């Protein structure tokens, strides 16, 4: 198959390598010509995935039309805030009925739409073969060929199965799932819990507190998912519990690291200024908080983070407010 990856950040680069390994003719499209030139010169993405060699068979291009025009499968791997503008840019070049796979983790803040809904809106006349890819997948490990599993969701199983066959290889096991809503929302909300996990690490709250946070975090993720039409079981899968564990425990997670910096007293603006990498949780907290308010769903951890990020509440104060909430039945949704 001809596969084009849009977005040469760390995850786009790792996915392009997986596609190549699975035997596809693969192009990594890069928006900035100077970044494409550097990757071609060094055969390495020094800016976002240093230390991983890009084989000569991986095509690197800064020509959007050429990269998109002939592709059977297009992976969109930009930060979620750029998914709409990226789709608007490529829509005129996409082949009819091509498969478009959204690999970003987030929802659109302005509209509260899931990324697949944004894609439906923009690609309406071109293709309805739209899929979502998510799972416990840090680019630093996938790019170094360590074994990993992921899940692809689509409205029609056949669409997800195309992507499964295209990306599966000996080191990257691809599952399918028909619950697009659940996979997308789990991918978005686990980043919020990872920020909180980073705060817990930064405050040295211990393993018991972190385990409680992940468990109640998964409950909160599931609660929002069910309110928005997701299946509960998806949250026990790779995109739910799997990615929650990977992101909350990993030294690679930018969201967890950002939480740790919040606990050390840095503000969200300071953190964003000091990194070229995306911290999706920052966008997700605001987008999910607003969505939950509209739906009347109570999300205590998300609301606490909203106060920390947007109302300068001290993380310690947010923690003690969470501990002092009304007593509950664990299983109440
Ligand atoms: N890094 C990882 O391990 C994983 C990341 N993801 C998701 O993939 C998405 C992309 O993340 P990363 O590859 O980590 O990004 P990154 O933080 O490594 O790189 C930032 C990316 O943003 C792009 N960018 C900056 N300004 C842009 C604009 N105006 N328009 C389009 N693109 C622009 C850059 O070219 C670069 O590709 C995110 O939604 C992230 O949550 C998902 C799984 C794993
Ligand atoms: O989604 C990811 C791992 O599955 C990447 O997480 P971070 O953005 O926190 O690094």
UniProtKB/TrEMBL annotation:
EC number: 1.1.1.94
Residues of the active site: 190 (proton acceptor)
Domain Glycerol-3-phosphate dehydrogenase NAD-dependent C-terminal: 179-319
Keyword Lipid biosynthesis: yes
Binding, NADPH: 10-11, 31-32, 48, 105, 139, 254, 278, 280
Enzyme class: oxidoreductase
PROSITE patterns attached to this UniProt entry: NAD_G3PDH
Pathway this chain belongs to: Membrane lipid metabolism; glycerophospholipid metabolism
Presence of the UniProt keyword Oxidoreductase in the record: yes
Superkingdom in the source lineage: Bacteria
Gene3D superfamilies (UniProt xref): N-(1-d-carboxylethyl)-l-norvaline Dehydrogenase, domain 2, NAD(P)-binding Rossmann-like Domain
Known role: Catalyzes the reduction of the glycolytic intermediate dihydroxyacetone phosphate (DHAP) to sn-glycerol 3-phosphate (G3P), the key precursor for phospholipid synthesis.
Family in the record: Belongs to the NAD-dependent glycerol-3-phosphate dehydrogenase family.
Name of the protein: Glycerol-3-phosphate dehydrogenase [NAD(P)+]
Organism annotation: Veillonella magna
